[in-house]
Design brief:
It is a single chain. By secondary structure, the chain is α+β, with helices and mostly antiparallel strands. The chain has a single domain, classed as Ribosomal Protein S5, domain 2, CATH 3.30.230.70. Helices cover 21% and strands 28% of the residues. The chain has a 5-stranded mixed sheet with strand order 1-2-3-5-4. The longest helix is centred in the last third of the chain and has 15 residues. It starts with a strand and ends in a 22-residue tail after the last helix.
Length: 141
């Protein structure tokens, strides 16, 4: 894992776990859109995308169902660790790009995004590491 690689992001990280490679950038906090109304706490907005050579399609304009599900799971995993009540009327954007898909992409995204949030200097309760366990059963004939 390396942090601080993206110059235009407030925080970033790159993570390799086995054959899985993920890059995450954190942007913000920025002022929330007025149409969303007043909020006493900030909002975490996460987006996960796959590159075309990682099994997804980088040319599509809309997220696939798998990307939407991973984005929602990433938000759900990270939101409790970020002190959003100290960021009223703001939005923190987290963009994760799966560069190579070798299994365990969600766990890699959660771990890399947590490190990127820390790299951005946001106040956190703690880091949110993740892992994925797979049970492979072999039957002998």
């Amino acid at each position: 894992m390396q942090t601080g690689l993206l110059k235009h992001a407030k925080g970033s990280s790159y993570l390799e776990i086995g054959a899985t490679k993920v890059m995450v950038g954190v942007f913000g906090p920025r002022q929330s859109d007025r149409k969303l109304g007043f909020s006493d706490s900030g909002r975490l907005q996460c987006e996960v995308r796959f590159t075309s050579f990682a099994g997804g399609s980088a040319t599509q304009t809309h997220q696939s169902a798998a990307e939407r599900n991973m984005s929602a799971a990433l938000t759900q995993a990270l939101a409790p660790s970020v002190l959003l009540d100290r960021l009223p009327k703001t939005v923190v954007d987290v963009y994760a790009m799966v560069l190579e898909s070798g299994g365990g992409e969600l766990a890699a995204c959660i771990t890399a995004a947590s490190a990127a949030l820390a790299s951005a200097g946001l106040e956190l309760m703690d880091l949110a590491p993740a892992c994925q366990v797979v049970c492979s059963m072999r039957h002998s004939v």
